[in-house]
Write a structure and sequence with these properties.
single chain, alpha/beta, 22% strand, globular
Length: 88
């Protein structure tokens, strides 16, 4: 089994969008430490995603679109807003 891994460290958001459009079998995506205030909507199109790391960003809300990631087994959110991340 081939597992696609995408890790972005201080990458431009436009680079992320371009790369994700080219990858349809991403299973692991690490967007930690990217100063994100929300989850990029393109992430919700990665239906084969199993692990999503969003730690140490500034994300306050997890949208209901996260439910589209039916293969997701790990979601890392630690280190985001002090008040706690809300689900909507």
């Amino acid at each position: 089994m081939v597992v696609s891994v995408v890790r972005y460290w201080m990458s431009a958001y436009t680079d992320l969008v371009k790369s994700l459009k080219e990858l349809n079998k991403v299973q692991f995506l690490d967007l930690s430490n990217q100063f994100l205030t929300e989850i990029p909507p393109e992430v919700f199109q990665l239906t084969n995603l199993k692990k999503l790391c969003l730690s140490y960003n500034q994300i306050e809300v997890i949208p209901s679109a996260i439910s589209q990631l039916t293969n997701l087994t790990e979601l890392h959110l630690f280190g985001n807003q002090d008040a706690g991340t809300r689900w909507i």
